Amino acid sequence: MRILHTSDWHVGKVLKGRNRNEEHIKVLAQVVEIARAERPDLVIVAGDLYDTAAPTAEATRLVTRALSALRKTGARVVAIGGNHDNGASLDALRPWADAAGIELRGSYPKGDLNDLLIEGTTESGERWRLVALPFLSQRWAIRAAEMYDLTAAEANQTYADLMARLIAKLSESFAGEEKAVNLITAHLTIVGASTGGGEREAHTIMGYAVPATVFPPNAHYVALGHLHRTQSVISPCPTRYSGSPLAVDFGEEENVSSVSIVDVSTEKAAHVREVPVTSAITLRTVRGTLEQLATVNLPGAWLRVLVREAPRPGLREDVQELLPNALEVRIDPDMLPSRSGARSAERAGRSPRELFGDYLDSRENAEEGVRELFDELYDEVSSNQ
């Protein structure tokens, strides 16, 4: 059978104030075109369909249309919730999804866990089973009272153990006598895997990394989401992150955006190839003085600009006049004065006004009125509290 594995669409993403809806329309249209050309039996979307738990109507319309278009290619479609998604909201769409022939699993059922086990048969008669695991937060997995009694290391191990038991329970059918292609999809972090650069750190590192040994050796392929970099993971079975089909932030500008096409059978090891997705606008970081930046010619890219000039009022505007597609303008860190340990120690016990004054002094910001505006804002916030 053939599988198209994709994840981390992050529809609704705003990059430094720039709406990326038009990019997402083109990217998902290309994913659908790849599905039409490759004719997969199954499409797996491994979480983070949206960038926020409260997506706009526009984002919801785009995701539902993309899933419907993938289903119309003739493939079965399975999508799970990620850490950016609102699992309950995705589950609320299940009546629509069921009517459209789409398997949507936003969160964990309170009753029968077998709802997370999906089965099917390809047109050629090949059977498959898929364990579909939405993102599971540590706070939900480990009761609050227990978390207070556990050290951080104990909580992390408890979370990993729970995931291992959950996967083992749901994959019990893999050992059955009836032959089928055994599949797992999950939205989680595997120990040792490389982040893409734009993930939500609290859900990537802090207590959420689990060892690859949680996956059974009799699984034929594990389709992962959550990390935005395309990569295989050393595991008891073929395990892979498809990565995001577009770079969601400047930390991902070196990633190669793609979807994974997987050919696998009960008698044949999974063979994976990447099909590039090229529809998104390129992200690039450039640095230099104003004179050097004037020579930059990247009209088709969103830019992060690191300016090698002393901080001064109006510098951002000067850069954006030279490079209108600059979404982020910062002083190059090499131009900023180093902070000594002694100066950091002086922070203790000092007022916000004093600390902000030090911040302005360290950057030689002499713009009139900034200190006064901070004082006014601080007074207003303090009085409201």
- How many separate structural domains? 2
Number of helices: 12
Record field, number of beta strands: 19
> Structural class, from secondary structure content?
alpha/beta
The CATH architecture of the largest domain can be named as: 4-Layer Sandwich
What distinguishing features does this structure have?
single chain; 385 residues; alpha/beta; Purple Acid Phosphatase, chain A, domain 2; 2 domains; 24% strand; globular; hydrolase; SbcD
Describe the structure.
Helix 1 (21-38) runs parallel beside helix 2 and helix 11 (352-362) runs antiparallel to helix 12. This protein has 385 residues and is α/β, with parallel strands linked by helices. It has twelve helices and 19 strands. The strands form five sheets. Strands 6-5-4-1-15-16 form a six-stranded mixed sheet. Strands 7-8-9-12-14-13 form a six-stranded mixed sheet, with no helix packed on it. The chain has two domains: 2-276, Metallo-dependent phosphatases (Purple Acid Phosphatase, chain A, domain 2, 4-Layer Sandwich); 282-384, no CATH class. Residues 335-361 are annotated as: Disordered. This is Nuclease SbcCD subunit D. InterPro entries: Calcineurin-like_PHP (IPR004843), DNA_Repair-Maintenance_Comp (IPR050535), Metallo-depent_PP-like (IPR029052), Mre11_N (IPR041796), SbcD (IPR004593), SbcD_C (IPR026843). Keywords: DNA recombination, DNA replication, Endonuclease, Exonuclease, Hydrolase, Nuclease.
